[in-house]
Amino acid sequence: xxxxxxxxxxxxxxxxxxxxxxxxxxxxxxxxxxxxxxxxxxxxxxxxxxxxxxxxxxxxxxxxxxxxxxxxxxxxxxxxxxxxxxxxxxxxxxxxxxxxxxxxxxxxxxxxxxxxxxxxxxxxxxxxxxxxxxxxxxxxxxxxxxxxxxxxxxxxxxxxxxxxxxxxxxxxxxxxxxxxxxxxxxxxxxxxxxxxxxxxxxxxxxxxxxxxxxxxxxxxxxxxxxxxxxxxxxxxxxxxxxxxxxxxxxxxxxxxxxxxxxxxxxxxxxxxxxxxxxxxxxxxxxxxxxxxxxxx
Length: 296
Ligand code: SF4
Known about the structure:
Layout: H1 2-5, E1 13-16, H2 51-59, E2 65-67, H3 80-90, E3 95-100, H4 107-116, E4 120-127, H5 136-149, E5 155-156, H6 165-170, E6 174-182, H7 210-213, E7 214-217, E8 222-224, E9 235-238, H8 244-248, H9 251-261, H10 269-272, H11 282-295
Parallel strand pairs: 1-2, 1-7, 2-3, 3-4, 4-6, 5-6
Antiparallel strand pairs: 7-8, 8-9
Bound molecules: iron/sulfur cluster (SF4).
């Protein structure tokens, strides 16, 4: 724990990719090609147990978010329930999120996930037309499965609780979010990887906090500075050969953070091509600045 707070004690999200290859379901996703919207590529059947990462999270009594998607769909991973159960039992303060496009979500799977201990089910329903109907499975999960486990006043539709994780866990709140999305939507340049949006770094942008709060792990153990580095092309380390703490406190990671604190996005190709404006809230900005001053 002491090692963790030594520098940037702000890790809030640990997100793991369980497959290298999957077709996602929208035009902004680099894995999507027009007209092809099916899971296509190989799912990795056997993943490492991430023993060192689990131990580190346990040691720091981790109370942030754990998710299993980065840029893929977690439901294609056969051992997902096992991983959720482990996290739920061993990291009781963590907030466990399943974010999915719902295409591999069955009623049975949703119930298994709830029983395994997820705190959050977020579904992005991708539609070709706004009037396309919501899939019946999702409606059943919404109307029958979630209410079986949670009272109406326990079901929230907000973003994950962030600083209020403990309060949310104590009150047994469950976040259930449905986002109706358009497969053609253009959202952001995703660090230069979105096929349907390019960004020329002519406009100034704000401060990006992602490398201060996220720890994204690829299927082969690489760690990226943020979820916008779709291909993990600018890896901060690899959990197969380094500890979580070592990577989190590495010179490489800190160098990226310092650059962003100074408003410099030229250090990394992703950052330079990224249109994510960053945070606008002065209070948060001061929190990051103070953290940086106290620890370096
Ligand atoms: S500015 Fe850089 S660190 Fe921030 S989201 Fe974009 S690519 Fe990631």
